[in-house]
Design a protein that fits this description.
Elements (H helix, E strand, L loop, with lengths): L8 H6 L3 H29 L21 H20 L2 H22 L17 H8 L10 H12 L4 H20 L5 H21 L1 H13 L2
Helix pairs in contact: 2-4, 3-7, 4-6, 4-8, 4-9, 6-7, 6-8, 7-8
């Protein structure tokens, strides 16, 4: 008979996990700083005359479709609901936050290395509250690798033993991957490489944060 998991926020603050939580928040804050400057650099680079788009097997043959509702509003909604879900799983919070921070840092590094121009038929994000935030964060120029595709895949790996959550996150990864391709705002390599990058980041996170990952494993052992 499965037992109810008794691990709670109290255990995070009272059982020596507080330092790990503070470290996670520091990593996450640092990650967003890295991402901010990476996006600024990518935007500045896009203004250079040497910045040009390249051919792509998928984009060259797929019509551009306006899927901003999925790519922008859908992504923000998924972030909010995903955050609430993570917060409902105290055992997963420490590892999930650190894996997320590592994901953002590594992606910021990659989008700073090689620069290609926006595909000419890409769908513009337009205007509006969420679109303005999307444009401000400069998601349109952060090509490799696709955060829309990679982040849900990473969360699927973190919550792999929770079947419903795993299927939802995997479905989101596929939906967002297809959407950014059809909107021509990502090259196919950005989307197809994202799950592999997420899997690698997940593996690195397990190595770097074994204590936090052990909390998740303990939960699965107790509930089986």
């Amino acid at each position: 008979m499965p037992q109810r998991d008794s691990f709670s926020y109290k255990d995070i603050f009272c059982d020596g996990e507080l330092y790990s939580l503070l470290t996670a928040f520091f990593m996450l804050g640092s990650a967003y700083v890295f991402e901010h400057y990476a996006n600024i650099y990518a935007f500045a680079y896009s203004e250079r005359p040497t910045s040009s788009y390249v051919g792509d097997l998928f984009l060259d043959n797929l019509p551009a479709v306006d899927l901003n509702l999925i790519i922008i509003e859908g992504a923000f909604l998924s972030i909010v609901l995903g955050t609430l879900y993570v917060l409902s799983k105290p055992r997963h919070i420490l590892f999930a936050l650190k894996a997320l921070a590592l994901f953002i840092i590594i992606r910021a590094l990659f989008i700073s290395l090689t620069h290609v121009g926006v595909y000419p038929t890409h769908i513009d994000p337009g205007s509006g509250f969420f679109a303005d935030i999307y444009s401000y964060l400069n998601f349109q120029l952060g090509f490799f690798f696709s955060g829309h595709t990679g982040l849900p895949f990473l969360m699927a790996l973190v919550f792999w033993d929770h079947r419903t959550a795993r299927m939802v996150f995997l479905s989101l990864s596929v939906v967002f991957g297809v959407a950014v391709l059809l909107a021509h705002i990502h090259y196919s390599i950005d989307v197809l490489a994202a799950p592999f990058m997420a899997y690698g980041i997940f593996g690195i996170s397990k190595r770097l944060f074994p204590r936090d990952y052990a909390l998740i494993q303990q939960a699965e052992h107790r509930l089986t």
